[in-house]
Design a protein that fits this description.
heterotrimer; A mainly alpha; B alpha/beta; C alpha/beta; A: mainly alpha; ABC transporter involved in vitamin B12 uptake, BtuC; 2 strands; 72% helix; C: alpha/beta; Rossmann fold; 36% helix; 28% strand; globular
């Protein structure tokens, strides 16, 4: 695969795959975690990323350019928007024992509400299509391989966060309780795990990660109220490749989606004249193919002890 | 969905109130001016700003009518096109069915205009669009008028001429894959090759995309394939434009060739980012856009807008103001009747001094006076400098 | 110790237990017997607030249990071993045990885990293993161990020997016997009456949501009629 791509195109597209795949992974892990622990495929997830990106943008516009501060702001705002959407919408609905489909629709509605709150805010303060003020420059160049400071930011940050998350999930008492909830919520209640509190922490974590992913995504593109929503199908495709239950499957899925959207589409374009405008169709195709032929995702192929149960 | 329901309810509520006003003052005659614009989606800001321009025009007109003792008043009824062809059709239908409006100002893009076209033609509703420029909507005899802003048949010629003048043997085009981008791409290739240009490699990107790494890689590879003489032409929507420049700034090929591009590339947001500004400056970026020549109305509009809304009008907001005025003047002359408005609109338009240019329509109902400014980004990336002009009617470029 | 008065309970709108009154004595091994659908499991779940209670009361000593969230019940000293899905099968055995001990004060946890080795020696060797890989008997032992680790005064078990080979089932009951010796109150729901009656002190027989018999294990075994008509011959 890719033999027919010119070398420069191949290298660039692979670098893009890694960079974009890392961002997808960061967002998709949150979706997998929400689905496992809360049994909710949360379509409002994209909006936590957008909220985080706006937090990062506003902090950077206020003159604070310390990347750590920017990322923390993004984490906090993403985490709070996730927690608030849980407390205000999902939790009351769960209390009423509504159906799975009602919850999905509710997640769409929550997404819509956050999106338009951001729209209103962006309109009022004129914050459309701005970039978080960290300038882009070439960090490393060797032949056709070009790595930017953005790459140096995005990839390690994503990897470190994914690593911390895995560690937290597999080694800490909170992580153990989250996995217990994911595996068997009734037994968790019976043995006295404070289910609601663990859920709150999970929402904070999921939203915070999405917020950081949003801030990094805002470095990759431009900050706009629709930016998260624009990426959500790709991110969901990654999570579905992970069977919505496996961490390693989700991470692999994220890179598969990014690879398809960067390298595969270029290969098809160069060799078969497939228009790049079909790029947004790729995650849909992946979702349909996975749901038809391998609804459990990549899970079983690479199952590990640390994976989340269904 | 929820939002749409809210809109419908609002419109219903508005019309009910409207009806109440009408009965309370039964000597008044109310003409409804429909407004179909994208209030949501990535063009939501345009839509909201445009609506303010229309509100200003309506407020001024009603003030004049009252002072003159006329019994006619204008009211607007707006609906969201959601920036899609289907949304535009629904918006038009909602407006017409709930208020009986005969004339609708908007929608914004060519794809929305074409989406609304069938309903307009079949129901005798007149569309007065203010910013659609795709050649695909240049159709004689239909119910669509595109005032003030000329179709891209003109600007694509200007871009082709500049590309040839700059000595580009071959060109690479990145365009948004919708009627506007497709039209610009096709017209550009036609004009470029007709005047002696070489090969053109075109890449369409999906209108909803805001992450354009793969597209940038493809453009870069195509440019590399053509060699040093090639140039690049970018036809993007806002948002995608910034995202494209963002990923291009570290590409060795894209940063070493000359660029042409549409107005979306020249936004304030673009230049607000020093990296983006520098990239465009290094690329000798040139754009062709409708001339911002002033008319006597230009400063008046600006002052009135600031007085009414306490904020600066956004780009092209004055076009919405002009379109609303042309629509209302025609309705005053022809009455609140679609067929009569259709027949009379060209005459009124051709006697209207716009806030930017004189309005004048061709046989397709499109703006026919095409006077463009050629602007290049300043060397330090601080802003755009007018370097010349293009007269679309004579196909001549004049540099300062 | 647990006193139930006029309890009507079930699932959703379905009432399974009808005006049930009975009480479980402290430090006794009580068995709740009855055919399928007699409401035995419903009774356990009502105590744990896992289903719908339509009326009546459930008291732990003086305290009303109805309305207490399930999460809080374990802190009152009641542990419950459901019939199915009674372990975290995706987690390791050790993690299951750690979760079981989580409500103990931190400094008591190591001792509890050590004591556990003596009662459930088999689990000590399986710590790193994923719980789903355990055999049927080990699985059941783990479920009981999770409950035991919270150091409850009362343990409710729903059909602890269901699906186990006879020899292993006997093992499970032997462990329950040891727990009773230590002074724990046990309430066990069983279909296999003959077996449980050999270990328990007292038995209740339910049928169609109502109490039809209660008495000591001996009385129950002696009453041929009860055994035949309500419990089937085993």
């Amino acid at each position: 695969m890719g033999d027919n791509l010119p070398p420069a195109l191949l290298t660039t597209s692979l670098v893009n795959t890694i960079q974009i795949g890392s961002l997808y992974a960061l967002m998709a892990l949150g979706i997998t975690l929400t689905f496992s622990v809360m049994k909710l495929p949360n379509f409002a997830h994209a909006e936590y990323a957008t909220a985080g990106a706006y937090a990062a943008l506003i902090v950077s516009l206020s003159g604070v350019l310390n990347p750590l501060v920017i990322m923390i702001a993004a984490f906090v705002v993403g985490a709070l928007s996730a927690l608030i959407s849980h407390l205000a919408v999902f939790k009351p609905l769960e209390r009423r024992d509504v159906s799975f489909y009602t919850l999905i629709l509710a997640s769409f509605a929550v997404g819509l509400i956050i999106r338009y709150i951001l729209f209103t805010m962006a309109d009022y303060f004129n914050l459309f299509d701005l970039r978080i003020a960290i300038p882009l420059r070439v960090l490393f160049r060797e032949g056709t391989l070009i790595l930017s400071n953005l790459f140096a930011w995005v990839v390690p940050t994503s990897l470190v966060l994914v690593f911390i998350l895995t560690l937290l999930l597999n080694r800490s008492p909170l992580g153990r309780e989250m996995r217990a909830l994911a595996n068997n919520v009734n037994l968790a209640r019976v043995i006295g795990i404070p289910v609601e509190r663990v859920k709150n922490y999970t929402w904070l974590l999921v939203g915070g990660l999405a917020g950081v992913a949003g801030a990094l995504w805002g470095l990759q593109t431009a900050v706009h109220p629709l930016m998260g929503w624009g990426a959500i199908i790709s991110v969901f495709a990654a999570a579905i490749l992970g069977g919505l239950s496996s961490f390693s499957g989700t991470i692999l899925g994220a890179y598969v989606v990014a690879f398809s959207e960067n390298t595969v589409i270029l290969f098809l374009n160069v060799n078969y004249g497939v228009d790049l405008a079909y790029k947004p169709a790729i995650p849909f195709i992946i979702i349909i193919v996975v749901l038809l032929f391998r609804p459990q995702g990549l899970t079983k192929l690479i199952r590990r002890a640390g994976d989340l149960g269904r | 969905m929820t939002r749409r329901i809210v809109y419908v309810l609002l419109i219903v509520a508005m019309t009910t109130m409207l009806g109440a006003t009408a009965t309370a003052q039964d000597d008044m005659e109310i003409y409804v001016l429909g407004v179909a614009l994208p209030f949501t989606g990535s063009f939501g800001t345009f839509g909201q700003d445009f609506e303010r321009g229309i509100d200003l025009a309506v407020a001024q007109m009603n003030g004049e009518l009252e002072a003159a003792g006329s019994a006619i008043r204008f009211e607007t009824a707006s609906a969201d096109t959601e920036q899609t062809p289907e949304g535009a059709a629904r918006a038009l239908q909602t407006i017409v069915q709930t208020t009986g409006a005969q004339v609708v100002v908007g929608p914004l893009t060519t794809s929305e205009v074409l989406g609304a076209k069938q309903f307009a033609d079949e129901n005798g509703v007149i569309i007065v669009a203010m910013a659609s420029s795709g050649p695909a909507a240049s159709i004689p005899g239909d119910n669509i008028f595109r005032v003030i802003y000329p179709p891209d048949t003109f600007s694509s010629k200007a871009f082709a001429s500049i590309a040839l003048e700059r000595g580009h043997q071959n060109m690479v085009v990145l365009y948004v894959d919708d009627p506007f981008g497709n039209g610009m791409n096709e017209q550009f290739i036609k004009n470029y090759q007709a005047s002696g240009g070489g090969e053109v490699a075109s890449f369409g990107y999906a209108p909803q995309s805001t992450e354009l790494s793969a597209e940038a890689a493809a453009v870069s590879a195509a440019l590399a394939g053509f060699g040093e003489d090639a140039g690049f032409f970018c036809v993007c929507f806002p948002g995608a434009a910034e995202a494209f420049v963002q990923v291009s700034q570290i590409d060795p090929i894209l940063t070493s060739v000359q660029w042409l591009g549409n107005e979306a590339m020249t936004s304030d947001e673009m230049l607000a980012d020093p990296g983006h500004a520098q990239t465009l400056a290094n690329a000798d970026f040139v754009t062709v856009s409708q001339s911002a020549d002033s008319t006597p109305l230009t400063p008046i509009f600006h002052a009135d807008f600031v007085a009414m809304f306490d904020k600066e009008p956004g780009i092209f907001t004055n076009y919405a103001f002009d379109a609303a005025n042309i629509a209302m003047l025609t309705m005053l002359a022809a009455g609140n009747d679609g067929a009569a408005v259709k027949s009379m609109l060209p005459f009124i338009s051709n006697h209207y001094i716009g806030t930017a240019v004189q309005a004048f329509l061709d046989e397709n109902g499109d703006q026919a006076i095409a006077s463009y400014g050629i602007r290049q980004v300043a060397e330090d990336g601080s802003g755009f400098v007018l370097i010349g002009s293009y007269d679309g009617n004579t196909d001549t470029i004049t540099y300062k | 110790m647990i006193t139930i008065r006029e309890l009507t309970a079930g699932y959703g709108k379905l009432e399974i237990l009808q005006d049930l009154s009975l009480s479980f004595a402290e430090r006794q091994f009580s068995a709740v017997l009855g055919p399928n659908g007699s409401g035995k499991s419903t009774l356990m779940k009502a105590i744990m607030n896992l289903n719908t209670v339509f009326g009546g009361s459930i008291h732990l000593r003086e305290r009303e249990l109805i309305g207490v969230p399930t999460e809080a019940i374990s802190r009152l000293g009641i542990a419950y071993v459901p019939q199915r899905e009674n372990i975290f099968d995706e987690l390791t055995v050790l993690e299951n045990l750690q979760l079981g001990a989580r409500i103990l004060p931190k400094h008591d946890r190591p001792t509890a885990l050590k004591e556990l080795q003596e009662i459930f020696p088999i689990l000590g060797r399986r710590g790193a293993q994923q719980a789903v890989t355990l055999s049927g008997g080990e699985h059941q032992m783990l479920a009981i161990a999770i409950a035991w680790l919270s150091k409850p005064s009362i343990m409710l078990l729903d059909e602890p020997s269901a699906g186990l080979a006879p020899a292993i089932a006997i093992d499970v009951f032997r462990v329950l016997g040891e727990l009773r010796e230590q002074g724990m109150t046990l309430i066990v729901v069983e279909q296999n009456a003959r077996r449980v009656l050999q270990y328990c002190d007292y038995a209740f027989v339910l049928r169609e949501g109502m109490l039809v018999f209660q008495g000591t294990a001996e009385e129950c075994l002696r009453d041929e009629e009860t055994i035949k008509s309500y419990l089937g011959v085993h």
